[in-house]
Amino acid sequence: MVIDLDRCNGCGACAVACAVENNVPPAHQQANTRNAVSLMNVSAVSNHEQFPAGDTAYIPMFCQQCENETPCMTVCPQNAVDVDPVTGIVGQVPQRCLGCRYCMTACPYHARTFNWRDPEWTDGMKAQLNPAVAPRMRGVVEKCNFCHGRLHAAREKAAAAGRNEIDPADYVPACVASCPTNAITFGDLNDEESDVCRLSKSDGAFRFLARLGTEPKVYYHTTKPWVRALAERSLTRTRQEEFHG
Amino acid sequence: MNRKTVMPSKLTRRDILKYSGGTLLGVMLSPLPWKLLDDSAIWTQNWSLTPKLSHGPLSSLVSRCTLCQAGCAVQADCVGGTPYRLAGIDGGLCAPGLAGHHLAHHPLRIVHPHLFSGRDDMSTMTAVPLNEAAAVISKRLALRIGSTAVLDHQPGRPVSEQYRTFLAAADGLYLVPSSREEETVARLRAMSSVPSHNYGFDLENSTLIVSFGAPLLDGWGVPSVMQSLRLNGAARFVQVDCRRSRTAAQAHEWLPVRPGTERLLALSVLNVLLHEGLVTAAVKRNVADLNDALRTTRPLTPEAAAPVTGIAAPVVRDLAVRLAASDGAVVLSGADAGGGPFDAETQKAVAAINVLIGAVGRRGGIVRRTTVPGIPAHAPAMTLAEAPDRSIGVLFVDGADSGYAVPWELIERKLQKDALVVSFSPVLNTVSAHADVLIPAPAPYEAAAGIPNGPGAPAASFAVSMPLLPKNEHTAEPSDVLRLLAAELGIAPEFPSSEDAAKRTAEAVHASKRGSVRTPDGSVTAVAEIGSAEELWTLFTGGARWTDEPERTGAMPRFTLGLTGTDAAAPTMQGLAMIANGWRGTVSASQISPVLSKVFQESELRHNAGTVLLNPLTASSFGLNAGDAATVSTDRGTMTVRVRTDAGVRPDTIEAVIGPLPNGAETPRHPSGRTMLDLCAVAADGTWRITPAFIQKA
Amino acid sequence: MDSLLIPRGVQRTTFGRFLLWLLPWSALLLVGLYAIYLCLIEGLYHTNMDNRFAFGIWIFLDLTVIALGAGAFFTGFLLYILRRTELKAVINSAVIIGLICYSGAVLVLMVDVGQPLRAWFTFWHPNTHSMLTEVTFCLTCYLIVLLIEYIPIVLKNRQLRQIPKFLVFEFQLHKLMPVFAGIGTLLSFFHQGSLGGLFGVLRGRPFAFREELGIWPSTFFLFVISAAAAGPSFIMLTTRLAEAVTRKRLVRDDVYRFLGRVSGIMLIAYVLLKTVDTLIWINSTSPGSGFPAFEFYATRSFGTWILFTEIVLFGLLPALVLLSDRMRRNRRVLFTAGALVCCGVLLNRFVMTIQTLALPTLPFDAFLTYLPSWEEVAAFLFVIAYGMILYSVTYRYATVFPQEKELSMARADAAEAPAPSFPRRPSFVTALIDRFASSKL
Question: pLDDT by residue (tens digit) across A95-141?
């Protein structure tokens, strides 16, 4: 997956499409940015220049599907995290998850969220849940799995047509499909012919925290120098305005 | 003896141990313990508090979103006939649109007609049958105290036509919200010698789009079309905005004008156009009061304006030159969703630029628009702000949403002392919660609805939103209510249901033989080639949109600009300038799916109501840090808010976010459900762009 | 009835006063129980943990109490394997402290996880690459070992001894004790280490990530050694606390001094290794993952002072004090140094858990703060109350300190003669360190 940060305008459609697709419950009254159940999280990042030079970039952050020593997978005590050897997608088995949250500590992208309470929907909304995705119970960890329900549907379609391989056009995650500015490109990074492979090797493409060596499979792209500089700086000093006891 | 060896009469402890050991081993070798283990594993994996998923055949339906007037085509994936996810067909949906199917099940959804006693207390809300609610209204109508009025947030629909018919019979006022996309074209109609002309913006062919405050790239018009214009189109977006709005941030250029000086900036552009020979002779001939305009703008040179507006003279001069030179330039003004409209003088100045650069009637500029057949052209509707104060005795507020904020103060000002407010909103929101009678209309996707062209569109168009959800039996369409009232009052016209009304419009479209129909799969058919009205209706129910041919007839009217130059300087004020703003469609006359919390409550992508943004320098001068609670006070009152800081905020201003309310926030009818909109000083002309405010640590 | 249960030859307070002593702890126990109920039945939203602070005070204190409870395994190791018989005086106390610390930690862990009913999945579907699997296995097994070690203490009760079967059982168990001590040492070694490994393997948290030695990160070994250093100090402190509460002498001073010396030796080794480890981390590991180490200390609250305090103030200083024979002879200095050692472990575990999570990883992350909710504090106080009650009851009805009788008789005789001390057998290294320490201080 490659995300063009220059095209992203922070509209939030991906986050909503993700929640609708994956049966993520709406926020409880006390929910906030830190205890949210949100598989797709878009952060607004400022360049901290004074008005009117200030600029904002929107950075969609979700499971980066680490390839090398997948941090969450290696730490899970009961194999509730698995990496699909074919697609390379990191999966989470909520039915096996104990809820120890060690994987959340291990993830440098904060891509994992914990179900701090029982999910709540109005009765009518319960009937409108996606039948392909099981809702998660309280006390387990969940994360983006590139819309497993959609992959499953594409595989069923391929099987019905007698094909072994899915048609790439049949399988795009909800965030990709919903992006109004087409900022997200999805495909097989190993396929040299694909758009996603070409974009991941283009100028201005980068990965967050690449030096950790986890080989994430989500790339970002920008032409803005300050966003680029931000991405290359691994750690920013504490922002004064964010820091308060 | 023999017996004793076969069956020992006494069991020793050792025997018991042996037996138990053997039994244990035997049980271990049987499937029983493993089955138990497996079952308990499954049991611990299930959790009774997660909902059971629906079962049923999967299908895909096509409809159109009615959350705003854009009417985007929607594909709904359904299980057992119930939609579980929506996707845009012709361009992406916006975030609220993606969860539009949840609105019918919003926690604040109202399905029964209700009577409220008292305006500020939630506890006095009683459910009544529709007849009883209608009787309350007709009794009041019969008294004929004050005028009857309808506030229609989405004018131009078939149901809007029904309101007009009803009001014509009841001698009432048809009102539209003050903040609209069509602010500039409405002003142009008023300036022109032929006020019956309709206009729209031909942005798809524009090369230079200068916007005074309009949220062009944040939900304006058809959001996906506007985004593709920015990303793929030839047009250059120039945003004149006092705050770094989303549109300002995305535009190619941003002129950070001082709050309240937009009018002066527009006038200084006019100064350059008029006094530096940039207006063609043909255009000059078309302006009735050219000399007045020359005289008015003469002193307002960019150099004179620059210290006030904060925009350097060369920048203004350059903009004016580009506007005059470009043959696809257009200028428009408009409101932020929460910020309120511009005053009439600013609107006039912006409209006048279009006239003087020759944008009116030009490709890529402001073009004439026909009307949808069956929906006749009307004189410009009166805005809410234009209605006489304390004149309305009975006010009907339509349930649809314009996307823009409507301060209750503005509505209240138009009401007589004991006026009756009737809301057709399907949910409680900060407007419907003030009603005396609430007759909930079907929620989005619960009933068919005709969708005319979106505001500002260059051509007339029509589409239909077909229901995806069953209609709740207790809800009533506005036409049902109008029919009941008409019968009581002895008014003749009939009021068909919204589906029948949409069908009639379709018939009229078919009879006109104008334009063409585009289906969601992209195929285009001329109406003249469509055999019957039924056939056209089938296309409509499949998500097709009819678009008219461009208007070609009629000569260009003359324009009377009516510019004035007095009081163009920014008002001096005490305290900080509070600039209200909000996310389109979430600000007052609407609700959004609870799942939208992912955007405004569970992330900081959008700020929610009760948040103020300050420049860190401003904040620290008041001893405030990010996350602090602070009290903001204006002459309308005081409110406790949460402070966020952002260096991109203009120093010495307060950006007050007025929506959306976080999930689980108390119902808007409750006093604590007030928003910052209630602190805004709504002026006599219905504007509230800047309010002097004070802030201190709570 | 009560007096019949009390061991012979020792003085115990009246039953009424004992109940009065238990009263506040029981109250605390009940409050803690309510907090635990809230977290288990209603959900973990009662805590102030969140997605970014996925571990909170519970994990931090669990790590700490397990390190402090390490006295059980290390004393057992010294007594049964290395035959340091002078430790017989505190072995029972060490076992009880160990049992309290471990059972308390496991209990809090069960509240901490979201689906405790699925805890056994770790045994059913273990991920052998996970440090937490190792911790879970060893913790469970070692808890069983501790229970087995605890049984003889209970069985030595005056009344229970009268049942011959129990006596035989206890005797047999006693013979096996070196085996259990060995198993316990092995298990403890692994889980103390794995607890360190828990954070050392976090490649995604460069603040905690450490180079690997073999298959374990360096924190594995640092945790083992620091626990071995803190354990004896904690036994020393708890025993002194018991003395203060009961207003009695329970062990002889030379035992305290021996514990202090053990602590000192382990601590100086720890400080040396920790220093080497920190230098490698600052110069190689951390910059290698793209994070200049000193940026971690850029915030006011977690500046370099924390590093100094951890290594010098709570590390080198008490180590040198405890290695000096002269210093150890001053009881006040000895216990202060012991307290510093325990503080050092507390701070180290704090740094590894809380500071790791507070620090940003993504370039646009903010530094985070976290304050535990009352439920989290109460649930932990439950463990302290439970420990107090268990310790008090065991102390009252079983022989926790074998020297108590002897010491109380000595006091009764008003004998001012100095207590006989075990001959000290200084090794070359400790002698050297002693000399070095005394010359310096």
Answer: 889 999 999 999 999 999 999 999 999 999 999 999 999 999 999 99
A139 within domain boundaries: yes
For the cut 70, the answer to whether the pLDDT of residue B120 exceeds it is no
Homologous superfamily (CATH) of B203-364 is: Dimethylsulfoxide Reductase, domain 2 (3.40.228.10)
B83: closest chain A residue by CA: A128
What mean pLDDT do residues B668-686 have? 77
pLDDT digits (tens, 9 = 90+) for B262-299: 999 999 999 999 999 999 999 999 999 999 999 999 99
- Would you say residue A183 has pLDDT above 70? yes
Indicate the domain borders of chain C.
2-407
- Is position A125 within any domain? yes
Nearest CA in chain A to C368: A243
- Indicate whether A34 belongs to any domain: yes
- With a CB cutoff of 8 Å and minimum separation 6, the contacts of C343 are C314
Is the model's pLDDT at C417 over the cut of 60? Answer: no
DSSP 8-state class, residue B525: E
Probe site for chain C from A74, A76, A100 (most C CB atoms < 10 A): A100
B54, B65, B98, B697: best to mutate for the A interface, most A CBs within 10 A: B98
Q: Tell me the CATH number for domain B576-697.
A: 2.40.40.20
Q: Spell out which residues of chain A touch residue C125, defining contact as CB-CB under 8 Å.
A: 78-80, 96
Distance, in Å, from the CA atom of C375 to the CA atom of C398, rounded to the nearest integer, reads 34
Could you give the CA distance from residue B651 to residue B654 in angstroms, rounded to a whole number? 8
- Judged against a pLDDT cut of 70, whether residue C412 lies above it is answered with no
Could you say which DSSP state residue A166 is in? P
B284 in Cβ contact with B290 (< 8 Å):
yes
Rounded Cα–Cα distance for residues A221 and A211 (Å): 17
In a domain, A208, yes or no: yes
What's the rounded mean pLDDT across residues C323-351? 93
Subunits with 3+ C-beta pairs closer than 8 A to A: B, C
Of A17, A119, A242, the CB nearest to B626: A242
pLDDT over 60 at B122, yes or no: no
* φ, ψ dihedrals at B578, nearest 5°: -90, 120
Q: Does C136 touch chain A (CB under 8 A)?
A: yes
**B113 DSSP assignment:** -
* Mean pLDDT of the residues in chain A: 89
Q: What is the dihedral of CA B95, B98, B102, B103, to 10 degrees?
A: 60
Of all residues in chain A, the one with the smallest CA distance to B257 is A52
> Does B489 have pLDDT greater than 50?
yes
Helix residue ranges, H only, B580-696? 597-600, 616-621
Domain that holds residue A51: 2-236
pLDDT of residue A178: 94
More confident: B121 or A147: A147
Name the residue among C54, C113, C122 with its Cβ closest to that of A105.
C54
Q: Which residues of C touch A140 (CB under 8 A)?
A: 114-115
What six digits make up the tokens of B11?
């069991």
CATH classification of the domain holding A94? 3.30.70.20
Q: Which residues of A75-100 are buried (b: 16+ CB within 10 A; e: fewer)?
A: bbbbbbbbeeeebbbbbbebbbbbbb
Distance CA C331, CA B629 (A): 52
**The whole model's pTM is what?**
0.90
Q: Number of folded domains in chain A? A: 1
- Which residue spans of chain B are classified as CATH 2.40.40.20? 576-697
CB pairs under 8 A between A and B: 222
Q: How far C125 CA sits from the closest chain B CA (Å)?
A: 11
Residues of chain B with CATH 2.20.25: 58-105
Structure-token pair, residue B165: 């018919």
Determine whether domain B58-105 maps to CATH 3.30.450. no
Say whether pLDDT at B10 is over 80: no
